[in-house]
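As promised in the previous annual report, we have extended the structural survey to additional targets. Below is the entry for Regulatory protein RecX.
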Amino acid sequence: MPVRPEAEHASSPRDDAIRLLARREYSRAELAQRLSVRTHSPEAIDDCLDALAEAGLQSDARFAESFLRSRVTRGQGPLKIRAELERRGVERALIAAVLAEAEQESEVDWFELAREVLERRFSSPGDSPRERARRERFLASRGFDFEQIRHALERLGAAE
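The corresponding structure token record, generated without further manual editing, is:
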């Protein structure tokens, strides 16, 4: 069995980071966590991440925009997207800026997205309070706020 070159000598944090970034975007915090698992020193990881950011190979802003687009496609609301980005180590100010920019440029209409998600799952707004509450919980679990949920339920009821 041939020996891989990586097994002969320890790889650098930069090589490992580039290998990870070749597959998908990562936030700085995610990348730091992944590199620390590979026994790189914290100083080497910080230096590497600074160099990658300076070279434009890693960007939290680009990661957040890409993440936002993918989650909107999956039908997730702003609250869930915000929480997930925070969990992945993206700064709150950057998250707010990315969400605001998406709304301003009409990339996403959260009210309409909530309606579409609800319509795909349910054909009616629900006849009983119990059914209506079930639909509300569904949208809330997807990360939509009360106003967006109310809008979606009203529009679904008006479509009948």
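Residues 59-108 form a domain with the Arc Repressor Mutant, subunit A fold (CATH 1.10.10). The chain has ten helices and no strands. These points will be discussed at the next consortium meeting with the crystallography subgroup.
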